[in-house]
Design goal:
heteropentamer, A alpha/beta, B mainly alpha, C alpha/beta, B: mainly alpha, MetI-like fold, 2 domains, about 0% strand, C: alpha/beta, nine-stranded mixed β-sheet, five-stranded mixed β-sheet, globular, binds adenosine-5'-triphosphate, binds magnesium ion
């Protein structure tokens, strides 16, 4: 059930030590938020989980097996930008996952297989609130809609691990609230672990089961190259959130100061399609 | 108001746009009148009637010897060569550009060679070309291909580099292998950009075609221009030049329309990038 | 009046002396003598040199008799042949691949510079074996610069061209000369022509041209080291060497002495030739639009003989300058 | 691992990069050997010794007649023309492009004309060009300018359009008038982009130069190639072609270095846009 | 002292009414925040204040005089992006305002004039915390630093009105906090009115003396074209903030949920220059 083990991982770029001695066990069905100052190596760490980079030392295992040396469908990803394909419609973007998996040399499905995949895609798009925009292209969507699409697209491949690199950083605070709600719901519904990088502590505590902070322990200018960041905080969120148990993970009780101005009456306020 | 903020209205706009064309026409008319006054059969800057005559002769009267209407024959011949050359270059450029843009091994092999090849002046190695492909249609098409292909490959390689790396990663997490990634993710995004590259290379393609036709040919727009140059028949050359310019313009327009129609997503995606 | 004159010349065996004369200061010497300036400009592209002359950018140009008629004269520029330099005596040839009879040309594609003297030579050659261009061959226009390369391709089997290309082509295996200009002697004439009006107003220009020319002729025809040096330089400038250049000279009937040229131009050949040439040009539509007949353009010969339209004489052979040279009156 | 993720190491990379050049050399050597075996005086694909001879003759032995070393003479002549042509085109392109890109009135007047002009094949109107500017150096330089200038103007106009509108507004709120906005805000940002445009137009510029030199000239790389082409002297032509390619490559490299040195901010700004 | 009067302004694009019947008096030294749902015309309104657009009906006056038909140095602006010039260093960007004003045909200052302008620019850059990066180019700065630079650049021209269009929307929440503080301080120190568009209500209340909300009163799909947005709320912020009286406008007492994770010890955490 997708245990991720990070064992004594170091990452260096030439002279510069970016991460040092990272040891981490991520339990199945966790939702880990990764926070830390800019440049401390959060993205680098996520890239290693994705096999976009290899650790200089140490190893990363999923369920006890070293991860494959290249990205694969076991690990899904949503980046801050550029996660969806501009040449495919909303539906096409989500279908792509199914087509690449089952579509053979052409990477396309036909007939029944396609119909089935389409049904599934539409269901997912419905879940992320995009069922009314199936035939639109990403450039016609707002930023929030694009990130929701990217989520649906990643989920159709049924990854064991979903990696998110500041997925909501570019969104307006109001819209961000909507997407947070959605994100929590998806995590409850899909059997996966989530690792999310964020700059926003409140987001981290709002969503995750566990918040991990990276930072450099030695930070004098002359030591910057020689010492990388490592884990400085590892906080279990309380009250505990349990995957598949949305009751415990509900809205925080305090109203958030950065909630949208006119949240009600504009269910889709970031939706340029409506305005057109 | 600052000059940069002053905009002509629609009428002024059209008048202004027509102005330089008018000036050129007037300059020509003056020059022509002066020369014709000196020598009524001057050939360099013929008068209007000569043009009408020449156009009538080339575009509407069948040739005495062959029965062909020369302008149409030339146009059809040249366009066939041009289209064939560009089509082959585009197909080849797409294939090689895609392979070299995506696969590091192919790129290592081809990138330096293509860079060097794109700088060889193709006209200078024509003799070798003749030996390899003969003197027929093939040689003209090949010259276009040889001249345009390396530029297309280079262009496409750069354009594949410009695709966000994240897309390639994402596609792999969705289960793409190298091949499906190429045909489902990269190819469809590169096609509209290929059209841009082709548009940029239309000018050089015409140049190569005209040069090739000047060297050995029996018909074609470039052939006719160089043939009648032998008796300084500017009354034929200038309408031919105008006609080539128009064709070039129409091809450019056609490619733009094709890009918009075939890739409706592209314009928005480019604007929002 | 005009003091500065421009002569355009292009690279060809019979016109190389112009370059040499300019380099050696002969041009300047004669120009100074007549108190004028003469600029000698080299063209790589023969047709462009004639076009520039026709358009009025030059006062004189080196040209063949046929092109003088079809380009400047047909373009309304009254042109006078100041110097008759030579005629082609084998310099132009019809060459077949693997065949050695002219009649084998039937049905073949013939590569040549369309509307050039090669084209004329082909017509004359075909006449000699009772064939016609229209029925028996297909002409493929081919640039002279690429003629040798074209010949090396398998699908080119027949060419008509001139030297040095002829020599280059004949040096390849399988090339057979089946007809050349020595079989129509005196029909392809290499001239230095000048604008008639310019000459009329400035006879000194014509005299200077003749003076330069025959001094250079004397120099290059001599069997002295100076003569060899001159021929070597000319060969080099035309892209070959002394041997190559002398081989080309051999196929050229040079009129080294003004008297030879006079004899030729005063004889009957020019008129007969020009009649044939005009006919050829008319057949190919090269005498200007709507020219009613081959005689649309008048051609004047020494002694005032005129062929064709007397009201529109645009091309003149004159003996005046060469006679002056022969008589030492320059 | 997927092919797209497999990268050659440094050694393989160099070997692979050399491969196509080697293949071309081998193909040439084979072809040459076959032809020379058939005909020892074959000129189309000469052997190595002929090249050495020719290079020695052209590049290291002074010409007897003039004392010049031909290759250097040709190179100096051609480069002077090319640089002059490109410099003039660049200056003109900058001036007109800037005016047309910034001032709506100028744009209305020039944009359609420039678009049409950029599609006229300049080779076809050569005779007129020669009459207008004469035959001296001016004609070769002018052909380059005529061929390259409209493209440069179009390019620069588009590039000025690509500057964020906000910058122009911002500059006006800082007190810029049309002129200071042009020289302090737009010009410095357009200069590095001009270098890109020039690099793109180097190929066509060489083509025009070679064509012009082929018609009327007494020295120059294009002149020499056309002069010896009649004799099919590939032993001279091929080294000349290689030399031109090298020059082209070096100019491209030089422009890239210039861009990096003179506009240190540009690379980063482009990457972050 | 810069009274802005907006009198019965309408703005239409072709068929579409974007803004209707906007009436507004902005007192001298105000700090007005403009909020409202996406697409309601906030940017359009700001553009009209900037003379980048002209009202279809109505007029805008500054101190009783209709505003000039084109942008000018009386009104400064900071956009969300592209506000600084990539080809000029930090110092050059700020100097530019002085040079364009006093630099004559060349738009450059020399000698004493330049030295004086430079001093002033350095002082301003010091105020926005960029004095250590004078010779860097904008592309070498983080987003937060670029916006601070844009502020300094706008201020050197001493505008009567400073217009801000979501100036901090692209910043990370942590960095945003720093810039808010700076913004308030600048407003206190410079004799200008500020009009700021934002999506973020908390930001609006955090900074402004007055918050104005735009919205469409009629929002049925079929009415969208025919009815534009107008002012739906106009709130005086309490406790009153008074320009030049920073005591009243201090930090809010509640800690903000979206404050930076490691705010202390990282005074310039968005500063890539430090990391290099
Ligand atoms: N490909 C690379 N080559 C060299 N250095 C790199 C590379 N990628 C990242 N780095 C360096 O590694 C360090 C960590 O970068 P990383 O992008 O992981 O930080 P981050 O925590 O994600 O920062 P941010 O919050 O700004 O996204 C930085 O100092 C960066 O300069
Ligand atoms: N130049 C234009 N031409 C036509 N319509 C325009 C133009 N500019 C803006 N609009 C329209 O005017 C409306 C208001 O746009 P505006 O950019 O002012 O909204 P906004 O409130 O700033 O939105 P956001 O919060 O997304 O920035 C939108 O419906 C937009 O489509
Ligand atoms: Mg990161
Ligand atoms: Mg806006």
């Amino acid at each position: 059930m997708t245990q991720i083990s990070v064992r004594n991982v170091w990452k260096e770029y030439g002279e510069q030590v970016v991460l040092e001695q990272i040891n981490l066990e991520i339990a199945p069905r966790s939702f880990v938020a990764l926070v830390g100052p800019s440049g401390c190596g959060k993205t680098t760490f996520l890239r290693m989980l994705l096999s976009q980079e290899t650790p200089t030392k140490g190893e990363i295992l999923i369920d006890g097996i070293p991860i494959s040396p290249e990205p694969g469908p076991d690990r899904g990803v949503v980046f801050q930008r550029y996660s969806v394909f501009p040449h495919l419609t909303v539906l096409g973007n989500v279908l792509l996952g199914a087509e690449l998996k089952g579509g053979g040399v052409l990477g396309r499905l036909f007939g029944t297989a396609r119909r089935q995949a389409k049904e599934e895609a539409v269901k997912l798009l419905d879940a992320v609130g995009l069922s009314h925009a199936l035939e639109k292209y990403p450039a016609q969507l707002s930023g929030g809609m694009q990130q929701r699409l990217a989520l649906a697209q990643a989920l159709i491949a049924k990854p064991k691990v979903l990696l998110l690199d500041e997925p909501f950083g570019a969104l307006d605070p109001g819209i961000r609230g909507d997407v947070h709600k959605l994100m929590r719901q998806l995590w409850h519904e899909h059997p996966m672990s989530v690792v999310m990088v964020t700059h926003d502590l409140s987001e981290a505590f709002h969503l995750a089961t566990r918040v991990i902070a990276f930072d450099r322990r030695r930070n004098l200018p002359e030591e910057r190259l020689r010492y990388g960041a490592s884990i400085t905080n590892d906080i279990e969120v309380w009250p505990r959130r349990v995957a598949g148990n949305p009751d415990f993970g509900k809205e925080p009780t305090l109203p958030r100061r950065d909630d949208p101005a006119q949240a009600d009456g504009h269910p889709d306020r970031d939706d340029p399609a409506d305005a057109a | 108001m600052r000059l940069i903020n002053r905009r002509p209205d629609r009428t002024s706009w059209m008048l202004l746009a027509a102005l330089p064309f008018l000036l050129v026409l007037i300059a020509y008319a003056l020059g022509s009148a002066v020369r014709l006054a000196e020598n009524p059969s001057d050939k360099l800057l013929p008068g209007l009637t000569s043009f009408v005559d020449a156009i009538d002769r080339m575009a509407f009267t069948p040739d005495k010897r062959t029965g062909d209407i020369l302008l149409w024959l030339d146009t059809a011949t040249s366009l066939a060569r041009l289209v064939a050359g560009i089509a082959i270059a585009a197909a080849g450029g797409l294939l090689v550009g895609l392979a070299a843009g995506l696969l590091p091994y192919v790129r290592a092999t081809l990138a330096p060679f293509v860079t060097v090849a794109s700088m060889v002046p193709p006209l200078a190695v024509l003799p070798i070309l003749f030996i390899v492909v003969g003197l027929g249609e093939a040689s003209k098409i090949t010259l276009i291909v040889v001249g345009v292909l390396p530029c297309l490959i280079r262009d496409l390689m750069l354009k594949i580099d410009d695709l966000p790396r994240q897309q390639l990663i994402k596609a792999q997490t969705l289960g793409a292998n190298s091949w499906t990634l190429a045909i489902r993710v990269v190819l469809p995004q590169i096609l509209p950009r290929l059209i841009d590259s082709i548009r940029l290379n239309l000018g050089p393609a015409w140049l190569f075609l005209i040069s090739a036709e000047a060297i050995a040919s029996e018909a074609g727009l470039g052939y006719r221009i160089f043939l009648v140059r032998r008796y300084l028949a500017m009354d034929v050359i200038l309408p031919y030049v105008a006609w080539i310019t128009l064709l070039c313009f129409l091809m450019d327009l056609g490619l733009r329309v094709l890009q918009r129609r075939a890739f409706p997503w592209f314009e928005d995606a480019r604007a929002s990038a | 009046p005009k003091k500065e004159f421009k002569l355009a010349w292009s690279i060809y065996v019979g016109w190389m002396p112009w370059q040499y004369a300019a380099d050696q200061g002969i041009v300047k010497k004669w120009a100074d003598k007549y108190g004028i300036k003469i600029e000698v400009v080299q063209f790589n592209d023969y047709v462009e040199s004639i076009n520039q002359y026709t358009a009025g950018a030059f006062d004189a140009v080196t040209v063949t008799n046929m092109d003088a008629l079809s380009i400047p004269a047909a373009g309304g520029v009254d042109t006078t042949a100041v110097i008759v330099g030579d005629f082609s005596n084998g310099n132009d040839a019809v060459i077949l691949k693997g065949k050695d009879k002219l009649s084998d040309i039937k049905g073949q594609k013939v590569n040549l510079v369309e509307f050039s003297v090669s084209h004329y030579l082909l017509t004359r050659a075909l006449e000699s074996v009772k064939m016609t261009e229209k029925d028996d061959v297909t002409v493929v226009s081919t640039s002279d610069a690429d003629m040798v390369a074209a010949w090396s391709t398998p699908d080119v089997t027949a060419v008509v061209t001139w030297n040095p290309l002829v020599a280059e082509i004949l040096a390849t295996p399988g090339a057979k000369k089946v007809f050349d200009s020595s079989q129509i002697p005196g029909e392809i004439i290499d001239l230095t022509v000048a604008n008639t009006d310019v000459l009329k107003d400035n006879p000194a220009f014509g005299k200077a041209l003749a003076g330069i020319w025959y001094e250079t002729m004397a120099l290059m025809s001599a069997d002295t080291p100076a003569g060899i040096a001159a021929r070597t330089a000319m060969g080099k400038a035309s892209g070959t060497d002394l041997a190559g250049y002398e081989a080309q000279l051999k196929a050229t009937r040079m009129f080294y002495k003004p008297a030879d040229a006079l004899a030729f131009v005063r004889g009957p050949e020019p008129k007969a030739t020009m009649q044939k040439v005009a006919g050829f040009l008319f057949d190919h539509g090269l005498l200007g639009n709507g020219a009613p007949s081959a005689e649309a353009i008048g051609i004047e010969f020494p002694g005032g003989v005129i062929y064709g339209n007397k009201a529109s004489v645009k091309f003149r052979f004159t003996d005046a300058y060469m006679a002056a040279a022969a008589d030492g009156k320059l």
